[in-house]
Amino acid sequence: MNIHFFKYQGTGNDFVIMDNRDGHYDALTEAQIKLLCDRRFGVGGDGLMMLNVQEGYDFAMQYYNSDGRPGSMCGNGGRCLTAFAWKMGIRKDHIRFIASDGPHEATMEGDNWVNLLMKNVDSVEADPAFFYLNTGSPHYVQYVAQLGDFDVYEKGRSIRYNERFKAVGTNVNFVEPLADSNGIFVRTYERGVEDETYSCGTGVTAAALTFAGPEARHYEVPVQTLGGNLVVKFNKTGPQTYDHIWLCGPASLVFEGDIVI
Question: Record-annotated residues binding substrate (predicted)?
Fold first, then answer.
């Protein structure tokens, strides 16, 4: 099979994308998707997405982890797929699409800045040592010191595969407040990739929500990742409830090409 693909990245979180509005790639297998995401033998990416048709929406987002299996919501992936849809001619002031966790809305600023409306969060588990919440994907959030030198892979893997999480898995985020700004530095171990990624959209969203103060008001949290900077905007409506959550940042085409598998 010949596949025409596009490679996108959002703050270093990279994806293989195909236009599947004609259903041409519906028969791709788990093994083939895994191969396409392989950085040595395929195109390489943290995941793979298909731009699909869905009645009542501008498009549907079909997301696969780099292990070839269907994944839960990917925030940076949603931003990249929106930028791709824009390139493919889906150009509206407010773009509406459906993903695994439900409907989303997105807006474009220029050709590569995407604002993505995330799902509301109605509960957060707040333990003295960590937070646990779902922002479209499940996220464990732990605050640490000297995050730049922290062993994200080993510590993240040990949490992802502990007795509580090993059956279904969780993404694991380590967070350090930034002394020179009202923001945070976030590093993430992602399930499905089973490694640290340069950035995780649902992860930085989860981290930003836990960083909010006790006041119920509007917040804008600058977020630094290994792959670049994002902003998370949201309303805190109660002690553990949040709405109008926007993940904002760049999403750019890296290259496009053809591969035969």
Answer: 13, 65, 75-76, 171, 190-191, 201-202
Does residue 65 have a known ligand-binding role? yes
Whether the Cβ atoms of residue 243 and residue 120 lie closer than 8 Å to each other: yes
Catalytic residue set: 74, 200
In this predicted structure, what is the pLDDT of residue 179? 86
104 and 148 share one domain: no
Does this model's pTM top 0.85?
Answer: yes
**Percent of the chain with pLDDT strictly greater than 70:** 100
Domain containing residue 21: 2-117+251-260
CA distance 164 to 116: 31
Q: Is 191 annotated as a binding residue?
A: yes
* Structure tokens belonging to residue 102: 């439900």
> What is the CATH number for 129?
3.10.310.10
The pLDDT assigned to 260 comes to 96
Verify that 131 and 107 share a domain, yes or no: no
